[in-house]
Amino acid sequence: MVRKIAINLKSFEKGLINKSVIQIISLCESFNFKNNKVIYLPTAYKRFTVLRSPHIDKKSREQFEMKTFKRLLSISFPIKNDLQDSIIFHPNRSHKVQTFLQLLKRTELTGVQLKITVYYDTKSKAIPDS
């Protein structure tokens, strides 16, 4: 039974990552997934210093900076202990999650790297001590 889906987004442009988050949230709302959280992760900075001329004038340098913007989108599903709410009696819920993940895989999010992590619970019988 799916309990939570975490989607990590990375991009070099702030506008692209914000547009992608809005697109994913609208996809969640079309599937009636209500528990969405967007967590803004810290921006990673990489700075490079390059010599302008390799032969002379060592003091003449150029500096560049590369920013990586990150977001974490968390979609959680309520878990109830009732047998009526279990996945055995509601196969549509797992089907909705699979369809959502397939649509998310097929959407074009240019300039954005996605990493999808699915957390789920399994029901197992207790093993008696022997």
TrEMBL record:
One of its GO terms (molecular function) is structural constituent of ribosome. GO terms for biological process: translation. InterPro entries: Ribosomal_uS10, Ribosomal_uS10_dom, Ribosomal_uS10_dom_sf. Residues 6-117 form the Small ribosomal subunit protein uS10 domain. Signal peptide: none annotated. Keywords: Mitochondrion, Ribonucleoprotein, Ribosomal protein. GO terms for cellular component: ribonucleoprotein complex; ribosome. SMART domains: Ribosomal_S10 (SM01403). Gene3D superfamilies: Ribosomal protein S10 domain. Belongs to the universal ribosomal protein uS10 family. This is Ribosomal protein S10. It comes from Chlorokybus atmophyticus (Soil alga).
